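Ticket #4471: complex job returned nothing on first submit. Input attached below:
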Amino acid sequence: MNPTEPTPLHLEVLYLARLRDTLGRSRETLTLDGPATVADLLALLRARGAPWDSELGGDRVFRVAVDQYMADPATVLVDGAEVALFPPVTGG
Amino acid sequence: MNPTEPTPLHLEVLYLARLRDTLGRSRETLTLDGPATVADLLALLRARGAPWDSELGGDRVFRVAVDQYMADPATVLVDGAEVALFPPVTGG
Amino acid sequence: MARCHVSVQHADFDFATELGWLGDGSGAVASFIGRVRDDTRDGVPLTAMTLEHYPGMTERVLEELAQAVAARFALDGVLVLHRVGRLLPGEQIVLVVATAPHRHAALQAVDCLMDHLKSVAPFWKCEEYGAARHWVDARDSDQAALARWGAL
Amino acid sequence: MARCHVSVQHADFDFATELGWLGDGSGAVASFIGRVRDDTRDGVPLTAMTLEHYPGMTERVLEELAQAVAARFALDGVLVLHRVGRLLPGEQIVLVVATAPHRHAALQAVDCLMDHLKSVAPFWKCEEYGAARHWVDARDSDQAALARWGAL
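Support reply: We reran it on our side without changes. The output follows.
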């Protein structure tokens, strides 16, 4: 396979707790051109405009988990990944 | 009352835990010439010889309570006082 | 090897029953129970608190935490039990128990476990004051508490 | 004003029942239970442990400790329960519970209370290994632990 050619990534994106309420959905399936990172996914979501751009940008603090492990903007996404977006945790 | 004249002090002396076993008694009533301190009482007990002199002297560690408050050699004894002798505590 | 037991559940828990998981051979048993506080907000008493979590990730994170803390403090056993769903004031939310040969290890383990749980386990609290609902914000003090322990 | 409850007793205790003394209004409940360990000495297993105390002084010391620790850590409640008499391996010896609005105060209070109890409350342990009896010696580490807290 040619690494410069885009390959489609099918992602299951989850929105949890406050983000589910403000973004109005609990999950969706997205397809990105790969290779892509968490930062690429976030850019795509912010491009939807309000409330996406304010909830996932600016000074709002949120967390990302990829396949149930904490991730950061540089984390590489693989086809079939489960990406969860949620606020800082408040259990205990 | 003339402070230089001895006044009798009646003391209830208790021996607890290991000291009760090694000294062979749990309590006794003693009369001392007052005024007297804890140090005076201990000197009187040590003068009985073994095992008193070794258990209450040398490098054996023990504690004294007077009327159920922790005391030290300088604590002044009053008539009717309850004096307890015991090893360092090991509860909890 | 320490016994570790982790559970995320709707049902309430009983301390004595849960302690049974850890046996009675250890001299020291330290524990922490977190409960829904009798809070008020602008004069309105708290009606309920809903605990949401991320199924799958929660259990894994708690299991890893329990194992790491057990190793660090040489515990005999660890128990971590966290409830989810809607809870009323006074209800129990979380139970953490550590058993060890000595008391300081057991107490420190509970302290360390709670600090980590509060910062890394994917649970969220949503409070209800009458008709008003609001998500509880994370506190900076939780991050500061975590920093006390270094890497697990 | 914190609720304080102190007891020196022969009977065993039940955690949930004792917790009832402190009500359910506090968010944080920290506790410590000390139990008779499954020890061995020269290959002989521990048969029993007898807890002796100085009646009257014990209750006063525990009451003063509970009050002092409650004030220092701004607790909602404190429970101190210590058994006396002959206990078998695995049996509960002591229960300390602190309730507070927040977890660090509750956990620190339990730690502080146990350190003081171990050094100032007039209890003594006598172990039985088969036919051999021996009084447990106080440990220097208990004095060192106490020094962490300064004056109560």
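Chain D has a mean pLDDT of 94. Closing as resolved unless it happens again.
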